[in-house]
């Protein structure tokens, strides 16, 4: 059974690219284009992991991350973002405890390996 990954980003091109890369590797991909859409779909879709953009309108990725973890503590969430400063990575990985912090642009192989690491035992 393939693992289900939710990709959350307000940029359709990014969502399409990540979806294409992951689907060619056998993952099932669910998409959301906002934090609120992500939160609405979580219970229904039950993904195995979430790739979450930080800079989104209305509700940013940090807020979405906190809301996900309130209800779904065990769900792996990786930040997928252009924010590549050390302070952002430290906040994501060590303060909020994201499962990974992937910066854009990303390599295809790197993305796939990191997603597999999040969902494989």
From TrEMBL:
UniProt protein name: Response regulator receiver
Response regulatory domain span: 4-119
Gene Ontology BP terms: phosphorelay signal transduction system
Keyword Acyltransferase: no
Example GO molecular function: DNA binding
Positions where 4-aspartylphosphate occurs in the chain: 53
Any Pfam family matching the protein: Response_reg
Keyword annotations: DNA-binding, Phosphoprotein, Transcription, Transcription regulation, Two-component regulatory system
């Amino acid at each position: 059974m393939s693992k289900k990954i939710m990709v959350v980003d307000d940029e359709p091109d990014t969502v399409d690219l990540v979806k294409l890369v992951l689907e060619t590797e056998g993952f099932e991909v669910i998409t959301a284009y906002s934090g609120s859409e992500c939160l609405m779909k979580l219970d229904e879709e039950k993904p195995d992991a979430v790739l979450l953009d930080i800079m989104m309108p209305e509700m940013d990725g940090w807020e979405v991350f906190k809301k996900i973890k309130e209800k779904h503590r065990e769900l792996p969430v990786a930040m997928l973002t252009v924010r590549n400063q050390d302070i952002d990575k430290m906040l994501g990985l060590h303060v909020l405890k994201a499962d990974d912090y992937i910066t854009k642009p990303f390599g295809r192989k790197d993305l796939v390996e990191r997603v597999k690491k999040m969902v494989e035992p």
